[in-house]
Structures are given as structure tokens and as C-alpha cells.
Amino acid sequence: xxxxxxxxxxxxxxxxxxxxxxxxxxxxxxxxxxxxxxxxxxxxxxxxxxxxxxxxxxxxxxxxxxxxxxxxxxxxxxxxxxxxxxxxxxxxxxxxxxxxxxxxxxxxxxxxxxxxxxxxxxxxxxxxxxxxxxxxxxxxxxxxxxxxxxxxxxxxxxxxxxxxxxxxxxxxxxxxxxxxxxxxxxxxxxxxx
Length: 193
Fold this sequence. Notes:
By secondary structure, the protein is mainly alpha-helical. About 55% of the residues lie in helices and about 5% in strands. Mean pLDDT is about 85; it is low at about 1-25. This is MarR family transcriptional regulator.
């Protein structure tokens, strides 16, 4: 059984401008602190402080994926399939989107989207058909079974996400969301309303 994680503030004694001996002045270090200390020792000419953010985000992403994946699997889905069903469900009735729209709403290529749609259609979660309002346009639509599955999976997914962020106070969650939105905005174009 894994030891409980100490979630106390380990950085309160760290001066942000002091890189060389910060490891000596904290109560408990994590892997990233150790890596940075080693690089500071070996390459004092380089500012390795970005590793504190990037390294922790990278490790956190791995932990979050490991926590999120079992929810998808309990509903017979992979992460990509969950994303497709969720994009269809978010579309509202009649729960359909063109394949290109789905690719844009899930940030995958149209080729990868075709494979996901094939798997979901084979499982009975979606169908390919003519659009309800325009018979000339082809769309992917949720089946009743697909809607039942994504509703149950999304309900469990949101409870899981709430659990995963529960250790952070509400004000810190809001601040983190703002910081991440701003940072992500440097890499992605804003959506048109």
C-alpha cells in the first residue's frame, strides 16, 4: 500500500530568486526538486527553474491519466472514444455532428476520427446517417445506447475529476484554471463565439 502523500506547503521557505541551495531549505523534496538540484550543481550556468513547472505538469498529467482511464474502461471506452461520445452529447439534440466537426471538437485528425467512429459504430454507440435537418449532409449520431453510456460515464467522470482537485482550495483551483487558460492561449487560438 502506498504511503499517504504529504500535501503541506513545501515551498513556503523558498526564495524565488535563490536556485542554488533551495533544496537544503525545504522540509521534503519531490523528484523534480532533486532533478533541479542536480542540474543546478552540474550546470550552474543554466536556469533550470522551468523544470519546476514543466516537470511537475508532465508528472501530474501521467498521474491524472492513470486516475481517469479506469472510469472510461468501466464503461467500455477508451479516452478517445469517451471524447467522441462526449462531443456528440454536448451537441444537444439530435446529438449529431459531421466527422470534421467531431475532429475539431476533440482535437484529433480526421483519419484518427474515422477509426474512432468505426469502433464506436461497431459497438453500437453511434451511427452514420444523413443529418436530420439536411439529408445531403452526412453526420455521426449517438444511438440511444450511446447516449445512455456517455451519460453514465460522464457522471462518473465528473465525480472523479471533482475528487482529483478536491485537495486544492476553491480559490487555488480558480487561480490555477486562470493561469492554465492564459498559458494555453499562447499555443491555441481562441474559439469564436
